[in-house]
Structure formats: structure tokens, C-alpha cells
Amino acid sequence: MLEDYLSSIVSDNAKNMRRSAIRDLLKMATRPEIISFGGGFPDITAFPVDELKEVVQEVLDENAIQALQYGETLGLKQLREILAERYREQGMDVTYENFIITTSSQQAIDMITALFINPGDTIVCGLPSYLGALQAFYAHQANPVGVPRDEELRSVVGALAAAGKKPKFIYAIPDFQNPSGVTMDIAQRMNVIEVAKKFNLLIVEDSPYREIRFDGESMPMIYSLDKEGRTMLLGTFSKTFVPGFRLGWIMAPKPIIDRLEIVKQSVDLCAPVFNQFIAAKFIKKGYFDKNIERIKVNYCAKRNSMIAAFEKYMPEGVTWTNPDGGLFLFVTLPQGYNATDLFKLAVKEDVAFVIGEAFHCDGSGKNTLRINFSYMNEERAEEGVRRLANAIRKLMETKK
Predict the structure, then answer these.
(1) Is residue 303 within 8 Å of residue 329, measured between CB atoms?
(2) 163 and 283 part of one domain
(3) Which of 320, 295, 298, 291 lies closest to 389 in space, CA to CA?
(4) Which of 93, 104, 119, 363 is geometrically suited to a Cys-Cys bond with 246, CB 3.0 to 4.6 A?
(5) Global pTM value
(6) pLDDT score of 11
(7) Quick count: other Cβ atoms within 10 Å of Cβ 154?
(8) Which domain holds residue 194?
(9) What is the pLDDT of residue 96?
(10) Is omega for the bond preceding 167 within 30 degrees of 0, making it cis?
(11) CA dihedral 248, 69, 67, 288 (to 10 degrees)
């Protein structure tokens, strides 16, 4: 009775919301004996507990009244100034006025979507692309259109524009993309800017993993290459500091920030002020950069161990990415195999992952899966890969 009544009165936006395939599938994998590669969790040893104890006490001693009170919607000015300084060191002409602090970068995606998207509007994104972004797009009744290869961006956008469905913005994760782990080169980044200029589009550059590079050459950010002010850059402390703080930010031209401030006022008034004070002091004391270096060494070793395990155990025909940073690698099964079928077999082998189809807005990617290498220790990760390889072999046996 209640279910029927609720179904009759919920909003069109709510009807368009989609449950997280990650969280729903992983409910099946909650047994303690299961080795899960499913979440995007940082390694718990990366949490700088001792330094945080010191910083928290200093904030309470020096800034308790301000830190425990409501704050500005735009965020703590001191933290925005620190972020601006860090980006200026990378060659960007920004000030604290180009920032708004958000309650995680997931909120940043939702705020931008709320600001620019009307029901039925088109957004262009990668195939695959971050599931949380797709959920936000669907919740606002947007139509995300995937681009299989960066080289096809111009033709995809051109076809949409010709059909009267010109996208509002291009959504891109240039560094260690979630879920694929791949990184755009300079030519691909410039292509995004050139397409945006040609068709007069905005760009959303989602950059949660950029600082976790442990191999290869760092690429310039799209924001720094864009000379026309089309780009909004999203950042977060969730992968580089403390995910439980739920702190992120948007860096954008001031006219966009001014409008986003109004959006945020209707959502939660301000991000957690206490956490902002802690983050600002943590960075100012030099602890943040020291912790990033520890994280990079740790995750590099874990990636290397994971790749070695894949090379050791995986059957012929299975391929995977080898990222230069971030938290994920992407696995592709031979054509004709389904990762959802594999998941059911994998759970019986006491190992779990995320099906790749969930990251494809067009329903493709059925033979792909995402693997997290940052959370599990190396010994457990190798055992998990062994179990996953066993499950894949069993799946292959069913096709013979």
C-alpha cells in the first residue's frame, strides 16, 4: 500500500535515479572470507592518524569557536587560498575566488549537473566513465552519451549537435580514469578543448587521482591548457587524505563559482567547517605532501604486485590495463563472456569485483570488470587474483 502510494507521488527526478550497481552487487560479498576488489577505498595505513591527532588538537586550541560554527557557503577562505596557491605552482592563474569547497567531489558533480542540466539535456562522457557521475546525470534526467575512443569525440559531438542535441558539457577524467586507469596524453586533452571551443561547450575535468602518480610523466591539466575559461576542475581529499572528511572542491571561473554558491546554499549551506580547518592546517604544516609521497610508494608496490599476480594466474585471452597511478585497473574478458555471470562464480570462489557494464552509459562493456589495487595488502591481493582466475576458468569451461 505505502509502496504504491510513494510510487504515485515521487518526483520525475527520483523516478530517474538509479541504484549503485557497485553497492548492490557487493551486498552479496559481505562475508569476511571474501576478498573484495570492489570498493574504491584507500589503504587504511595511508591515514595519517598521529599527525591528525596533533592537528585536531591545535585546531581546537587555536580556532575552536570558528571551527565549530557554521561557515561560508564558498568554504573556509584559508583553505581556498591554500588550494589556489598549490594550483598556481602548476602554472594556473587562479585565486581563492575561483574555488568553492564541496562536501566531497560527488556533491560537486551533482551541483554542476543541477546548475546546467534540464531534463533531456545531453552530456558527453567516456566509455567507460565514473559510475557516481552517471548516477548524478541520471538523477537530473540528463542523457549521457558515451565516446568509446577519444579520437571520436568530435564526430560524436558533431552528430549530436546536428540532431539538435548539442551537449551542455564534456565530462572527462584525464588522469588514471575510474574505472579504466588510463591517462589522456596532451593531444587527447587538447582535442577536448578544441571540440569544446568548436561547439561552444563547457568542460568538467574530474581530477580525484592526479596526485597519486607513481610512474610516467605528469600531463598538464585541461584547466591549464584551456585559455577561454570553459573548464571546471573537480578535486577531492578522499583519495589523498581522509575520505571520511567528505571534502572536495570546484575550481572554475568566478561567474560559474558565483552561480554554484547559490546551488550549494540550497543543498547544505556549507561543507564541514571543522574538517576544513583541519585540512588547511594539515597542508600548511607540510604533512599532506609527506603523506602523498608515502601513498605513492605504497600504491606503486601494490600495483606492481597486482600486475605480477595477473601475469602469473590469468588464463589466455584475458587482458588488463597497467595504470601509472590511481587506484584501479580494468580487466577485459574475451568477447562473448559476461562479467555478471563471472561475478556469481567469483563469489563462490570468495572473491568480488565490480562489473564493468555499470560504468558504460550505453549498456556495453559486459565483458569488463574493475579491480581496485589500493585497499588490499599484497598477500591477500595475490590470493584474490588467484581465486578470480579460477572463476574465469570455470566461466570459460561453460562456453566449451
Answers:
(1) yes
(2) yes
(3) 320
(4) 104
(5) 0.94
(6) 78
(7) 16
(8) 62-287
(9) 98
(10) no
(11) -10
